[in-house]
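Researcher: Going back to the complex we discussed earlier. I've cleaned up the inputs and rechecked each line, so this should be the final set. Can you rerun the prediction on the complete assembly and write out the structure?
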Amino acid sequence: MSKGLYINTGKLVGFILRRDRIRMPIWIISIIVFTVLIAVVIPDLYATGAERQVMAETMKNPAITVMLGPGYGLDNYTDGAMMAHFMLLFSTIATGIMGILFTTRHTREDEEDGRIEMIRSLPVGPLSPLTATFLYMTITNIVISLAVGLGLYPLGLEDMDLGGCLLYGASLGAIGVFFAALTGLFAQLTSNTRATIGYSFGFLVLAYIVRGIGDVENETLSLISPLGLILRTQVFVSNYWWPVLITLGISIIIFGISLYLNSIRDLEAGFIPTRAGKRNASRFLLSPLGLSLRLQRTTIISWTVGMFILGLSYGSILGDLEGFLDTSGIIQQMIPEVEGLSLTERFMTMLMTILSILGTIPPLMFILKLTSEEKKNRTEILLSKAVSRNQILGSYTLIAVLAVPIIQIMSILGLWFAAVFVMDDVISFNTFLKAGFVHIPAMWIMVGLAVLLIGYLPERVSLTWLYLGYAFFVVYLGDMLQLPDWLNNLSPFGHIPKVPIEEINIAKILLLVAIAILLIIAGFVGYNKRDIHG
Amino acid sequence: MAIIEVRNLVKKYGHFTALDGVNLQVNQGEIYGFIGPNGAGKTTTMRVLLGILKATSGQATIFGMDAWKDAVEIHKRVAYVPGDVNLWPNLTGGEVIDLFVKLRGANNNKRRREELIERFDLDPSKKCRTYSKGNRQKVALISAFASDADLYILDEPTSGLDPLMERVFQEYVMEAKQEGKSIFLSSHILSEVERLCDKVSIIRSGKIIESGSLEELRHLTRTSVVLDTREPIDDLSKLNGVHNVEKRNNSLYFHVDSHQLNEVMQYISQFGIVKLEVAPPTLEDLFMRHYKGDGGEL
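Model: Rerun complete. Updated structure for the full complex:
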């Protein structure tokens, strides 16, 4: 066992590169293009120093801090400072997600599907697959770091010198490497792909939340989170390299631990034990609906709890927001006075839209579970029983449609609970509820789109994620990037009235609901007509 | 009475023709073997019969009902075991068996279930993710035989089972047949098909190239003969219907077209037979002959 632990690692790296020859370049190019594009746009947005200073003032808003990270260099808010503040956190999350997905794919997923077994039956070292994956992720992230850095530098933006640009790139790469190592660790601890991805994304979300709370409340808390730590590079202002180095150092330690765990465990085993199951099915399981609920039980519960926590964490800053808005003269000038409404209430609408878009993720996961079931031939096996296609698609649709209001309630409750504690002038629960529930039709439209794709283009269901990502982008950065209105109107969330600022237009809401219903019906028609693929 | 009836069934994927005019008839109480090389269209045919794939043209009916339109009604009386059994990794085998039986609409016959679990030697309290291919197949087989179906559609049901389990499987198939049920079975294990099946169809490249009872099929092929005679026969290979003559250790090995057997026997008896072994063609011979596609070599 001690000899040749790493034999043929190099060849495996080559093999992985070949497997991902299309998938990985798409990620790399998207990240680079996105970063460079934003950098090109930024100088035009806020051309004069005075405009940038106004922007800097808004950046002191704790709500913005929770979302984007702490502002720095706000006294002299240059293009570089703005670029880093807008983009760094989300770009690192992108490389983090990339690290999670690709590492899972080449470690636990390959192992669960029996591919590692085949590889290991060849003259390949027991630790070679994991090492090859880590090397591959390191190479990829070096490419991203250099490409982003060297891509930004020639734009010649104010305060963006070569060192800063390279540091910006390296920050993305460091988080990518960190999450690759972390996922590699979870791939050792858990014994299946789902759990590996679940724990890794759970960690990412936790890191984001801890950083958000820490950035507003307590700096030390932020340093615990890898996302909080990396923002301390203060790229383009102070250019500190130590957060990158610490992140990389910790990644190497984590990688070492996972190598050790890999060396002491059996193939296809994990460390988190699996319990013995039941000999008989409970009555609850014995229907298509019961089955799909049971299959997604953990996902449903964790997302419901997760949305409550997310609501809490956004809500926890409402108090600071109140104070900030009252004292910041510039902001008061910027937001037009509306009779009888506090500034916080007006700010709340944007918060609610963001929570709603994030809250659309779980219902989409619930409905899209059906496509992965189909790919694994399990829909086929169900259809061979006395079960109709409507029953199967119906169960998944029902779960997704009902999940929408439940998820909304959870995030609203979280928001409100926190608000009660931190705000002097508490916004009524009723206002929260209205502002949240008014988004339900848009969320249903996203579910409807997913059903439609399942019915007609099952191999293209990922378009739903792209569309949701677009909706998020438009709301999140739309105002700051001063995007035109029509871009916002392309998203269903763009048509939702901004309660409590705007009145609820019942006709419009009903129209959105009708669109969602039509999409769902069309999806059912398609699903009944097409082949089930295996 | 025809349980399964397939007429001119065509299934195309774009330009690729998976099924090219398949005809089949499975009657009540019959065990019908469906054999053919990988990718010939066995599984596609079964999926069309189950209403999972929609036929491009042609007709597929089960119990006189349309396989696509009346799928749910049909499936109340059908038990299916797929070739590649994929189960939910986080459910136990026992849970899946109960689920399948229930979804077919049958009552859960506890005694029958326990008997099957014991006969197939399955631990139903384990999560499906820990099962081997053979164990996943057992889960599908147990749930199939635990429900009171009239038609069993089995796609290579024993490919992961050990010989002992294969025997158990065969017993249950025979039991089902005795109860007047019909079985449509695809398999690569020719001895199994030979032992179980009343009728056989061979499919290649989406077309049925041969079908009928084993008896009938044997007539289409050649009998193999091993012969020792007192006097040497030199011109055996010139005889009508004799093929592949080979001399090994003073014995002649050759094949005879089944319909020429009489003439050949009369001819060789003149030479004084010392030893004569005549073996009917095995399904394997049939199979090899059709698979190779030339029909000439045995």
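Model: Worth noting: DSSP finds 25 helices and no strands in chain A.
Researcher: Good, that matches what I expected from the previous run.
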